[in-house]
Amino acid sequence: MITQLQLNFPYDFDRVIERLSMDPLISLNKEERYVLVPMDRKIGKVQATGTTDKPSFLIEGIFEDVQYQTIKEIFHFDRSLEPIHDHFAKTNLAALFGEHRGTPIIRQFSLYATLMKSIIHQQLNLSFAHTLTTRFVHTFGEEVEGVWLYPQPEKIARLNVETLRDLQFSTRKAEYVIGVSKAIANRELNLEELAHEDDESIVQKLVKYRGIGPWTAGSFLLFGLGRPNLFPLADIGLQNALKKFWNLPEKPNAQEISSHFSEWSPYLSYAALYLWRSIE
User: Is residue 63's pLDDT more than 80?
Assistant: First the structure.
């Protein structure tokens, strides 16, 4: 089944593919402008056929309405970017949003994958973080039609720490990954139900688990759920991006950054994304 979708707002799919290509576990083709998306053991294909100003897409392999809706939510097809750009046109980030016009927040393909990736990436340089995540998925996940799927939490819950240590996980990180997976497998932590709660409630529940601090909880909100009004103040990349954008002699501190939140709200997440993009 092939569905054609046209958007009535600017959308830069080439910037989407560029950012997604940073993750070696995502299957895509830059030249042919498509991304493959695992959906309940089926593989969907999202292919751009239009331009940034006249975006259109072919969506293949999705047979259920709920899957089609999920694809639209993941890729930000379901809501216009124009109110966001109009908002920032009146702020001190106007030039940044002009340069990156049409860049959406893309959600991770699964909530469990979002948590696992965030925990694995903690305190690691990006190159080794991707290496370790790839080992994790290739060892315990599954390949379907050439696309790698993250493992089921039930499988990871049964592992012992030494098994992950053999992949070069630290003992503590192995304990975190197994512990959170056990909580999900036992239905103690239900990510789908959690997704219906407000940001503060989600953070409060997530940080109760070892290995999930404010940074990981924020990452889950931003890239797992696509929440629009988050800005991780402690992120060094964002501090460096603002230093460069504002031409400052030093990185701005948390108070200096947060003083602009009232101006940027309710779209802090987009400010963060566009600042990351400016230095990637």
Answer: no
CB 105 within 8 A of CB 226: yes
Q: Considering Cα of 214, then 275, then 240, then 74, what sign does the dihedral take? A: positive
Structure tokens at 8: 């009535």
Give the integer Cα–Cα distance in Å for 122 and 78: 31
Q: What are phi and psi of 48, to 5 degrees?
A: -80, 135
Structure tokens at 67: 């899957």
Of 42 and 245, the structure prediction assigns the larger pLDDT to 245
Domain around 65: 2-80
* Burial of residue 207 (number of CB atoms within 10 Å: 0-12, 13-18, 19+): middle
Q: What is the pLDDT of residues 206-234, one digit of tens each?
A: 999 999 999 899 999 999 999 999 998 98
CA 213 to chain centre: 17
Query: Of these residues, 65, 166, 198, 235, which one is catalytic?
Result: 235
Q: How far apart are CA 222 and CA 273, in angstroms?
A: 10
Q: How far apart are CA 276 and CA 273, in angstroms?
A: 5
Q: Tell me the β-bridge partners of 1.
A: none
Whether residue 141 is predicted with pLDDT greater than 80 in this model: the reply is yes
Which one of 60, 80, 100 terminates a domain?
80
Position 123 in a domain? yes
Taking alpha carbons only, the member of 277, 258, 278, 254 closest to residue 268 is 258
- Look at residue 251 and tell me if it is in a domain: no
Active site residue 235: yes
pLDDT band at residue 124 using 50, 70 and 90 as cut-offs = confident
Q: Does 119 lie in the same domain as 74? A: no
CATH number for the domain including 39? 3.30.310
Task: Enter the pTM of the model.
Answer: 0.92
